[in-house]
Amino acid sequence: MKLVKFASITKKMTLAAVGAFLLVFLPMHMGLNLCIIRDDGGEWYRNVCHFMGTNWIVKIMEIVLMASVLLHIVIALILTLENRSARGTVRYQVPSKTKTHFGSKWMIYTGMIVFVFMVIHFINFYFVKFGIVVADDSDTYTVEVEAVQKHWEEKAMKLQEDMTSGKISQEQAQEQMMNMQMEFMPFAQLVNSRQPSDKISKDGEELVNLTKEELIAYTGEDFTEYEPDFYTMCNKLFANKTYSLIYMLALVVLGIHLFHAINSIFQTFGLNHRKYNKAIEYLAAFYAIVIPVGFAIVPLFVMFCK
To answer: How would you classify the pairing of strands 206-210 and 141-144?
Structure first.
């Protein structure tokens, strides 16, 4: 029994379909990134990150998105290798006059550059969320005030239950309660203080920009419901001019990749026509400029407006 083999056109159509799906994702991601420039101390952006990290629908979509990226890369590599194999080592003596868009012949290379930067980007942000990348001493964290309050209340109730059930004596319970009150004091002082602090959000609902030591000081060593403070992490990364320059150069490459990708999608699905090919090119150029510029606003804002 022969193995099923997909025709080249099937691979191209799959590549185009997955590419079209990824094109829908980019404006959404750009919009979320632009929350960073809002003058609210990072409240919107932290809320967005919390939602993205806790909503199950978003988590499923993240898996679909990652699978789509990998599928897009694999099919692109297969098609590139097949095309090179078909051409062999023979080179045409007469140059082809077929019109190709700028960047068409370099799609695999621009795609590889974008992929390499995506891996770097995931290491700095996405993988930190899952603990795949171990946070260093300079990383900061955020936690909901309500969650910390509930944590301390549950510890007090557990201590009361242990004393009532006879697991510990009344003297031991009193001693532990006094120790707990001492541990609780830094958190209570921070939350109840009317003085402005960079450790609590403007709405007073989150502790933010906490180092690991500060996190333990306010919540105790057994508290686990904290998240990386992506707002602070983004600002630190983009304040690094070298990182921001590499980021924006990668966006230029992404723009070249997107311009040809959109033209190629229309062509693959037979939606191109001499009557409106120019309109498709304008649409591709508009998208390929707006998306990189939209992403570039954030590092430019952090470097020069903060």
So the answer is: antiparallel
